[in-house]
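Model the whole thing, not chain by chain.
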Amino acid sequence: GQSLEQPSEVTAVEGAIVQINCTYQTSGFYGLSWYQQHDGGAPTFLSYNALDGLEETGRFSSFLSRSDSYGYLLLQELQMKDSASYFCAVRSTGGGNKLTFGTGTQLKVEL
Amino acid sequence: DAGVTQSPTHLIKTRGQHVTLRCSPISGHKSVSWYQQVLGQGPQFIFQYYEKEERGRGNFPDRFSARQFPNYSSELNVNALLLGDSALYLCASSRGLAGAGGNEQFFGPGTRLTVL
């Protein structure tokens, strides 16, 4: 099976940098994706890491280390609108395009 | 371009009833997947359809079924509703079948189902 663990809640101040970690156990996967979800809204795709290393997209960066079964999402220059839940998810290699999501991290950005 | 659309947005049913949820993928996307999200948890995979065929099924009972139409839209059906079926049902579309790079899934706004 597959399981992904994330911290349940992270709090940071506006303008700061925050890192959301994700550790996983999986038998095989294409890569690690990150999604943002505001209360009552749809998950929005943020980034995808197929290879080890850092991927940067604007204020967001994501990192993957397959040898450590670990990844993280880095959010810079935090804004109030970044307050949301963040999910890591693996894309399985067992055929199809099934996403297995982590437990989710609720980020609260304060003034 | 329009994103993934779902209908209805909200639905209230009673135990034992059945429900049909609908999804239209992004234009050009041939794969539709369904997820169930219970409050406070991450989405759980239910089905994937590609080219009108079921290509993946999650750990859900046979009360859950789905189909995909020639225009790639999809329906999720749930029979004999239970209180525990109350959740946000999300539809996601992607261009192709596999989970390889460049085949990200994009989610619709979801249908909020409440079973009383």
